[in-house]
Amino acid sequence: MKNSNQTPESRVRHLNLKPVIEQLVERKKQHGWSRTQVLDISELYRMFLILCAKYPKRRLVPTYEVDAFWHQHILNTKLYAKHSQLIFGKFLHHYPHDARPAKGKRHVDIDRHMAATLALVKKEFYS
Fold first, then answer.
1. Does 3 score more than 70 pLDDT?
2. Which residues have C-beta within 8 Å of that of residue 37, sequence separation ≥ 6?
3. What are the Cα distances from residue 36, in Å, to 78, 90, 111?
4. Neighbours of 55 (CB within 10 A)
5. What's the pLDDT at 98?
């Protein structure tokens, strides 16, 4: 259950993502990321989770790197379920069909939603 005294940012900032980080570092061949890059991506992922908590009605689309980190987090099913409950009070589902259109089809909204998500990241974290 969420601690109502904490902000979404505080709840996300206190998540232990070390298992996810270590798995991605070990799978260097998959993405080619160094430890430093994985740590940077983990911070971008935290920003994405904060936005998901603060703006639950918005359709937020992560970058490729953040999406890959999210996938690895989801593979740690118990940890991901625990973190989802802590942050959102429920399981945060991932809808991969939103990220990549069916073969041969272009999902024009994806680029627009990703651009809007990146603009929101800039506004919330870099202004």
1. no
2. none
3. 26, 31, 27
4. 14
5. 52
* Structure tokens given for 93: 């589902």
SS3 23: helix
Q: Which two tokens stand for residue 74?
A: 């989801």
Helices (H), ranges, 27-63: 28-31, 35-54
Residue corresponding to tokens 């890059």? 37
Q: Return the exposure string of 15-43: e unless at least 16 CB atoms fall within 10 Å of the residue's CB, then b.
A: bebeebbeebbeeeeebebeeeebeebbe
Locus of tokens 């379920």: 81
Find the helix or strand (DSSP H, E) in which 13 lies.
helix 8-13
Per-residue pLDDT of 95-112, as tens digits, reads: 765 555 555 555 667 888
- The CA-atom distances, in angstroms, between 90 and each of 4, 11, 12, 111, 121 are 14, 14, 14, 27, 23
Q: CA distances (Å), 88 to each of 8, 27, 41, in order?
A: 8, 29, 21
| Residues 6+ away with beta carbon under 8 Å from 88 | 2, 52, 53, 56
Residue 34 corresponds to which amino acid?
Answer: S
**pTM of the prediction?**
0.86
